[in-house]
């Protein structure tokens, strides 16, 4: 099997409101940053794959506008997923494995500020039984958090600890939206307090993938993808055990995460309670550094926050701060769908 | 000139009409008739609400079962701020409820005076909506209940008179749309009856209207360039079908017009000349109308036609 690595990663600053720029204007500096790191130009990439959702900004076919940013004319080999960019990365990884491409540019972006994100996300739910009730993303996460509290798996203090650690770590992350200690605040939907929830904001991220010798040529220290897999659970919340994440565990197994210990994990846990679920499913002990970037609790641009986990893990390997890192991305209510990748240095 | 980014309200409404299929039709019609149905899975578990395929084995499920209107809260969350779209207009609890006889939980809301009155394991029952149409909202909400458990589940044919087979599910999302830097500048100039594009720093092409990036070079555009007002017809068509709600007599001409200085053609209506006299290469100018923020149409500029070589790259 071909070896594929992340050779460059870039992201925007994540902000509450990016009204001054369009999607492509928000994205362009990130794309130029990533291409610049590998001394490549748009048009020199074999495959482009992006992740975004038109529902966020209420703008139909916004991804075709964003394509202007990669120099789509003359025609490029391109694909798009209506998912987090982590799944666009998965598609690009498969494309590189086929041998049809040596390099791939993966990007994703989310502009949540034009709409009411909590309401927008209800539209991804089952349209017959759930969506007519308008159960928002915080409400569904709160049902999961209460199930964890009832099961004695965690308590409010432990959740506050996750929030504090994430935002304290984010103080060193210039791109993060919430940096430094924040009060837990009042209940948004009990038992979740303001501090248990991610900030709502706009942002973009991009990752450059390369295979084999191309990766070594483009980067001094490629972050090799040793394994990557994604799994999904039933859509109906009422048939799932919300205190566990069997899809994460299975994806991790298939990605080889349990073969040897990792030293770092970038977990896409938008809510404090979800980090508890993921740590258990992934059997991550206290010796593993969790979300040194601050994670999704510090910046959660929709459609990009999962890709950022892969990028942050890779960047840590490239800096020499990690030898073997796990990166995770999630999608859907209460950790419905999960992707796990294992990255290593040379 | 005004500065700052433009923005405007944008409402997106999508009243999807969806077909239900046999299982969902029986469940939603059942709610209309104050009957809660589940479906039995391959291993004998009763799922409420019912699904068409077994979540574990993917086998087709058709064996319907009537369950009780009473049940137990398996988890809950207190929502202090209803939005107006929620089933209840006062603070309420989101709940997953396992109805007596069911092996899975149903998402709905619980009417309770405060969070202190709600707990996992508490007993609840359905409060039916006064008017029922065959929708999940036929259950108005759940309410606390301290009576006896409901009857044991019974097989049910799923047959009802006037079964609901299609549902229309309206949804509305409200946005505040902002067009970004390049298009804001374009729109502000239009308000002054000027047409402004942006030039690519690499290939020098001028994009009108500008989108902020050059799709050939993949770089940001920034240098603002005023184009026109006159332009050249690069190609056109004759429209013979009257558009709904458009007060323009057919036939009329719709044309691609390359404004002087622009690197691509934009479209506009041509008037002030019989439709069968319009030509490629014709020189035209915009006609602005009071109160309109873009050219109403273009008309002949009274200049000799442009030579084909001057606009062939823009056709």
UniProtKB/TrEMBL annotation, chain A:
UniProt xrefs under InterPro entries: Thiolase, Thiolase-like
Q: Which SUPFAM superfamilies match?
A: Thiolase-like
Q: What is this protein called?
A: Thiolase domain-containing protein
Q: Which organism is it from?
A: Streptomyces ochraceiscleroticus
From TrEMBL, chain B:
In Pfam terms, one family for this protein is: OB_ChsH2_C
Give the InterPro entries listed for this entry. Answer: ChsH2_C (IPR002878), ChsH2_Znr (IPR022002), NA-bd_OB-fold (IPR012340), Thioester_dehydratase-like (IPR052513)
Cite the ChsH2 C-terminal OB-fold domain residue spans from the record. 65-128, 225-289
Top-level lineage group: Bacteria
Q: Which residues form the ChsH2 rubredoxin-like zinc ribbon domain?
A: 189-219
The protein in question is named Zn-ribbon domain-containing OB-fold protein
